């Protein structure tokens, strides 16, 4: 919470989770009683050996508690977020794939919209969860459909016995920005409860430059106002010494005008997006070496769109159930077996009828550590979809700490994975869709080195370098037919390859605390094969995949002062499949400065000034969608503990 905002910077506010030292034998030992050790059963990350993992924990997220995942990931990582404007549609690109190739999981359940096959990150408030993990690369065996380019995991890990904590924040900024958040949590050794609510609105009537015949003309953005709120509630109850019940609710509602393209007319388009997510789970730890878990979830996603000429409505309900059992054979080996069932019921105007579909999958996840410095995983998943059979999705990974001194560790990690993406409901059931589309499937490899300096000193350094190569077959592309209507087809084979590098420095000298992190991505993604009817040329970088991206962030704390800076670079991006038109590269600088004052023994007030796009860069993330110039906001944060 905010009380720890100043004191916690020596810890990793943002890190590669795999940089930590290998788990000791107590972490991998037989399952223990719940009051002694909190076993994160729903977290399959320890079965993802060899993969690159980036983590944003509660300390990093605390600065964006009234913002969205778009704000967090765009400021803290080199990942490319294709953003149509502030508060507008935002989709993610990981390792040169599309948003439909990124699985987004909330507490283990996929929340990608079944009709579109992706999540709008502008509709996911950052404060609703306390941890974000991004797994780079394919992981179909671990996370299921859509985990082709990567996976985003949203969760709120419990801190048992932490007592009561409350925090509230109010924001005010330029262009009509007003926001607020409220979070309260309580936990002892029996019960854990967390409630988080947020509200945000903005007119987004910022000035921008419009190219016209007479030259650049400054205009003011119209029809871009946003109003949204979120409420999340998590509760966990321990039953005796071997079981626990979990329940969670996440409600979001966004009413937004849709920002028109530069130079186009205003058709007063607007959209109402509502999501209701509920889940419940039960976990039981048997004596010795067994652990069982059952979870169920129900989601409802509503999209109501209208402009001057038309109205379109969509309502999709998703019911999911998961069951798994973990065998811990000894401190070196564990096996998790499980299955998942999904039912979709959709009422979408573009379908012309109500549709429903059932999907099933079974999986096995194996972790084996033959020696303390070597970890191995072998995972397998088979999905079943009505009328077609997605490919078998295996994953293998290894991490070997081959060199170690009292001060340093050097590890080699490798993984290979096959993944798949089931066709979306739109691709199959839209009036011009194709019910016979084949699932996309990808095969990816990666290898990397990780170095950690851990000498008993006031600072430490962690560095990781990863190279990857991936092929995606049967890539779905929408193309016009002979009547001029767009229809989806399995046309492409796409190859993505590149390099990811990151380094994090953490240090403290007396009252001064510093965390600095640099991350770079080189991404080459291009179509290597197509069909005769595919008009796109091969061998060209895919649209909206920057070749180079970079992020550098720093978090400083000194006595009651705190300073955060963020510098991001996004390389040029082609905007068409022929790789002719492009958007120029841009660099953004953001910063915030705050001071915390104790107003009572258990109360603290933080005043935070935030500046965005400090160099006043004129840029576009998506073609012809204006972005705000330099702007500022002021935050007041009140915490009690």
Q: What do these coordinates show?
A:
- The chain has 641 residues and is mostly beta strands.
- It contains 4 helices and 34 strands.
- The chain has a 22-stranded antiparallel β-barrel. Strands 1-2-7-8-5-6 form a 6-stranded mixed β-sheet.
- A hairpin with a 3-residue loop joins strand 22 and strand 23.
- It is globular.
- The N and C termini lie close together (9 Å).
- The relative contact order is 0.14.
- The N terminus is likely disordered.
- This is TonB-dependent receptor.
- Keywords: Receptor.
- SS-based structural class? mainly beta
Approximately how much helix is present in the residues? under 10%
Low-confidence stretches are 1-42
The largest sheet is: 22 strands, antiparallel, barrel
User: Hey, roughly how much beta strand do the residues contain?
Assistant: over 45%
Radius of gyration: 24 Å
The first-to-last residue Cα distance is: 9 Å
Q: Please tally the helical runs, counting DSSP H or I stretches of 4 or more residues.
A: 4
User: What is the number of strand segments?
Assistant: 34
Write down the overall geometry: globular
Rounded mean pLDDT is 90
């Amino acid at each position: 919470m905010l009380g720890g905002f100043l004191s916690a910077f020596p810890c990793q506010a943002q890190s590669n989770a795999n940089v930590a030292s290998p788990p000791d034998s107590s972490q991998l030992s037989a399952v223990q009683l719940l009051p002694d050790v909190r076993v994160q059963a729903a977290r399959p990350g320890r079965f993802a050996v060899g993969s690159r993992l980036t983590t944003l924990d509660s300390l990093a997220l605390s600065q964006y508690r009234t913002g969205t995942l778009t704000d967090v990931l765009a400021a803290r990582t080199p990942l490319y977020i294709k953003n149509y404007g502030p508060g507008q549609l935002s989709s993610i690109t990981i390792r040169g794939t599309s948003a439909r190739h990124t699985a987004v999981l909330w507490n283990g359940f996929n929340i990608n919209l079944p009709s579109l096959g992706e999540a709008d990150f502008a509709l996911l408030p950052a404060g609703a969860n306390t941890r974000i993990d991004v797994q780079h690369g394919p992981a179909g065996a671990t996370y299921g459909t859509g985990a082709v380019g990567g996976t985003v995991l949203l969760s709120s890990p419990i801190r048992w016995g932490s007592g009561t904590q409350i925090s509230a924040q109010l924001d005010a900024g330029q262009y009509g920005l007003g926001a607020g958040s409220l979070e309260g949590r309580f936990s002892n050794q029996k019960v854990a409860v967390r409630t988080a609510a947020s509200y945000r609105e903005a007119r987004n009537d910022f000035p921008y430059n419009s190219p016209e015949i007479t030259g650049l003309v400054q205009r003011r953005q119209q029809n871009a106002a946003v109003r949204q709120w979120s409420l999340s509630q998590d509760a966990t109850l321990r039953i005796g010494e071997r079981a626990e019940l979990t329940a969670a609710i996440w409600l979001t509602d966004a009413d937004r005008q849709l920002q028109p393209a530069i130079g186009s007319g205003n058709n007063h388009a607007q959209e109402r997006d509502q999501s209701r997510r509920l889940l419940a789970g039960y976990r039981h730890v048997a004596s010795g070496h067994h652990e069982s878990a059952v979870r169920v979830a129900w989601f409802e996603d509503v999209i109501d769109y209208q402009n001057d000429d038309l109205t379109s409505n969509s309502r999709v309900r998703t019911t999911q159930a998961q069951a798994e059992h973990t065998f811990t054979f000894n401190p070196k080996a564990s096996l998790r077996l499980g299955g998942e069932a999904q039912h979709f019921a959709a009422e979408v105007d573009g379908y012309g009828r109500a549709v429903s579909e059932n999907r099933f999958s079974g999986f096995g996840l194996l972790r084996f550590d033959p020696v303390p410095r070597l970890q191995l995983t072998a995972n397998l998943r088979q999905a079943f979809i009505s009328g077609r059979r997605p490919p078998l999705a295996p994953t293998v990974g290894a991490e070997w700490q081959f060199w170690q001194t009292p001060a340093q560790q050097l590890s080699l990690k490798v993984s290979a994975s096959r993944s798949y993406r089931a066709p979306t409901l739109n691709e199959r059931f839209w009036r011009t869709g194709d019910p016979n589309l084949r699932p996309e499937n990808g095969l990816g490899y990666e290898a990397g080195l990780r170095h950690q300096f851990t000498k008993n000193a006031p600072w430490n350094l962690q560095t990781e370098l990863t190279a990857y190569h991936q092929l995606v077959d049967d890539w779905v592309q929408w193309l016009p037919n002979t009547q001029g209507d767009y229809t989806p087809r399995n046309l492409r084979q796409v190859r993505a390859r590149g390099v990811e590098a990151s380094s994090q420095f953490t240090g403290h000298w007396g009252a001064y605390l510093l965390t600095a992190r640099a991350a770079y991505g080189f991404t080459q993604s291009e179509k290597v094969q197509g069909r005769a009817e595919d008009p796109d040329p091969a061998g060209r970088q895919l649209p909206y995949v920057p070749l180079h991206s970079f992020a550098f962030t720093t978090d400083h704390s000194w006595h009651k002062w705190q300073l955060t800076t963020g510098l991001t670079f996004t390389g040029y991006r082609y905007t068409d499949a022929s790789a002719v038109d492009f958007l120029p590269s841009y660099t953004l600088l953001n910063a915030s400065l705050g001071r915390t004052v104790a107003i009572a023994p258990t109360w603290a007030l933080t005043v935070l000034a935030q500046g965005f796009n400090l160099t006043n860069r004129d840029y576009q993330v998506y073609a012809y969608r204006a972005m705000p110039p330099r702007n500022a906001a002021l935050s007041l944060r009140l915490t009690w503990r």
